[in-house]
Amino acid sequence: WNTHSPFQFISCDVSGFVYLWDRRQQRNATRFVMKQQTCCTKLDWNRFDEFSVVMAGIDHSLYTFDLRYTKVPKAY
């Protein structure tokens, strides 16, 4: 759950996709891919920046994304 917005949370699946959910929205989740051919094992929101999330992959990779622009990670 997002500590800045209690209606938002993130989830992931085994194909590497990450989903941003907002319970106030009636549409499907925003979806982006962490990395092809991997899956996310841990997700966490930056408690000081509401737009930053970090993800740990099964291949021991770490990615930081800005949720306003998810096409490219901020850092990996």
Topology, element by element:
Blueprint: E1 8-12, E2 17-22, E3 30-33, E4 40-45, E5 52-57, E6 62-66
Antiparallel strand pairs: 1-2, 2-3, 4-5, 5-6
Percentage beta strand: 35-45%
Largest sheet features: 3 strands, antiparallel
Total DSSP E strands: 6
Q: Can you tell me the overall shape?
A: globular
Strand order of the main beta sheet, please? 1-2-3
Structural class comes to mainly beta
Q: Count the DSSP helices.
A: 0
Describe the structure.
With 76 residues, this protein is mostly beta strands. It contains no helices and 6 strands. It has strands spanning 8-12, 17-22, 30-33, 40-45, 52-57, 62-66. The strands form 2 sheets. A 3-stranded antiparallel β-sheet has the order 1-2-3, with no helix packed on it. The protein has a 3-stranded antiparallel β-sheet with strand order 4-5-6, with no helix packed on it. The protein starts with 7 loop residues before the first strand and ends in a 10-residue tail after the last strand. The mean pLDDT is 81.
